[in-house]
Amino acid sequence: MNDIRERSYGSGSSEKSYALLIFAAMLLASGAIGLWYYLTLPKTEYAISANTFSRLDASTRQIVIRLNEEPCNRMLARRLSASLTGASEYAAAISFIQNTEKKCGSNVDLMEPLVVAQKGLSNFEAAEQTLTRVVEIYPSSGKAYFNRGEVRALHGDIAGSYEDIRKAIYVFSDPSTILYRAFESLAQDAAKLGRPCEAVAILQDYTTFDSFERRSPEVLGLIDVPLRFSSRRI
């Protein structure tokens, strides 16, 4: 009886192992086929590397394959850029966007994922340069100034950050729609520049623009926060 059980168990185990091997082989084959197909496609000047391609999910691979056929399709370029940054493939995203621009011309829609990738690699100076281009294209964009201000702060340019975020706030026709984050960033910059009284005034301005909604105990309690960023007291 024991002998029969052992043989039965051994047979079942072998069948399961064989099935798992087949399944694994199918998975490997599907990935290999996709990679082989990509490698055999006519390459564009900016195609991502085969190594990067092998790490992408199936839907992103399809975008890459379509871009090989439609190299200057702006919608596909935007989708691939977003997918690459979403997968933290920052170096690949930067290379793709820069080469796409060389081949197909400037595409402002790719500047946002380019900044994300540059920040992801802690290349804040390059991100600032990209955002300067955005500011030049959209000189009345509060968002562009604010984003550049945040990047400037990341690499220690507090004065530049202060000027940008100040512009970002005051280009809006309705300051009551501006989020607290912008006022807080400006107040922090002012305090770091040794202007704690101005920092407090900035947060007070935030409550003034929409006093009913913004004069909550939580917000009013934050008015003292900028003082932490300066050794001076009012």
UniProtKB/TrEMBL annotation:
The chain crosses the membrane at residues 20-39. Keywords: Membrane, Transmembrane, Transmembrane helix. It comes from the Bacteria. The keyword Membrane applies. This is Uncharacterized protein. It comes from Parvibaculum sedimenti.
